[in-house]
Amino acid sequence: MKDSDESAGTAARSKRADARRNKETLLEAAASVFVTSGVEAPVRDIAAKAGVGTGTIYRHFPTRADLIVAVYRHQVEACAEAGPALLASSETPHAALGRWIDLFVDFLVTKHGLAAVLQSDNAGFDTLHTYFIDRLVPVCAQLLEAAADAGEIRSDMEALVLMRGVGNLCIGADSDPRYDARRLVELLITGLRLPQ
Amino acid sequence: MKDSDESAGTAARSKRADARRNKETLLEAAASVFVTSGVEAPVRDIAAKAGVGTGTIYRHFPTRADLIVAVYRHQVEACAEAGPALLASSETPHAALGRWIDLFVDFLVTKHGLAAVLQSDNAGFDTLHTYFIDRLVPVCAQLLEAAADAGEIRSDMEALVLMRGVGNLCIGADSDPRYDARRLVELLITGLRLPQ
DNA sequence: GACGATACGGAACCGTGTTCCGTTTAGCAA
DNA sequence: TTGCTAAACGGAACACGGTTCCGTATCGTC
Question: What's the CA angle centered on B160, arms B183 and A144, to 5 degrees?
């Protein structure tokens, strides 16, 4: 809640009304297009759906990645906030970790193509990388540390590596029904366990 | 060894000498460019390096993916053939599986960007998918079955899924030194183990 | 109602893979 | 050796993607 949330803010005087309206329209159009055509949908398609020119998109979102971030921000936040909650409510830290990773996988798998775009080293998606990493890695780290402290898992796995691994496993999970990302992730988490 | 291997063949009469020479030049140029710029290097770069026009590339290799397949065919073949060999020479099937996966990871990780391109659902890379899947999945399946029969691992993991998982884990392994694909793959294989 | 700042639209640009076609050349025959 | 033709070549042109630019339209204020 740092910007673009005008509903309760006292500031936000500078933007023109039509601009704010357009931004909202764009977010809805993008969300809708992402559902049907995947995250890799052409910018022009989104502009068309929203009934605006491409230039308008770029004024509101400097790059495609910013648009993606904006569309999914809420869900990423929810995922991030679920971490501590699960830790508090689960029997063991390892169970919390498992459930949290499950949430993360849910998120990635349901957004057609998001996982693939998340790892693309295509410069220009830096915003996307940075946002996901900055927001989620600390949460994952907390869960990992708790589980390690409880002696449930090995302590030499960095959150960043695990997150990227899970993210990678989710690539292509939608486009091929034979591929079972969730099971592989499960295996990965199992492999993390210390032979008690 | 079905075509393009003229050295010992009695056939191969139809192609003009310069064409054969160019194909060879192209393969070398592509291999060289792939090493320095990655598998995603522009076709034009490869053409330039080889000193030919882009049209020439497309006459020899109908699509970029065909060129990639041609460049790496030898190594994929070697990997495929290593499967049965490892199974015969290792103490246990699970050890053979581990070593074979290691070979596969070696291959993917050292080819800058190959893993990423391998999974891209970008139609047009079908050739690449098909070749890898057709050639390597049966080998992996054989290793998995042997290990399952020996009671070392769970028997409900399909080779295709495992291979794609391992492939996915290798994505981006080169571009970020903090990411440790090999360790994640190890974890995955560990997770496969039956609690003895 | 007028006017200046703000926002808009979409043509234009750049970098991809791929196709197309006029030009060149290898290889054979006379 | 010379001439001919099918094969191969080169690279301009096309399609398609993200992004930029700028003339035009609109908002909001005076």
Answer: 30
